[in-house]
Amino acid sequence: MSDNCQEPALIIMGKRILVADDDAAIVDCLQIILEDANYIVETSTNGDTIPKVKRFRPDLILLDVWMSGEDGRNICKFLKSQEQTKNIPIIMISATSYIEESTRKAGAEDFIPKPFQMHELLDRVERYI
To answer: What is the CATH number for 107?
Structure first.
């Protein structure tokens, strides 16, 4: 690989991303993609998203809209209402593409419909980090 291909990785080294989705396969896939791009990744597959945000202090959150037991939009609204978490960019993801408008109303910076392309995901993450 040329040095030019490695330079962006040096810029993002150490940036922290929390991935919150109740589908373990999607969480695993996202974790592999993001760690391969040199991000530090923490995951949440159940109702512990808010406590993990407070402990992990991510630079960005990838948040599923339909979490088992919780609506990701409510999690987003809560995080955006708190002084210590309101400036963390949140990208919401969902297989239900017609709900994009409601994710914006919840305070999310962006929305990615599932299934997504790896390069699209990484482009969006880089935009907010």
So the answer is: 3.40.50.2300
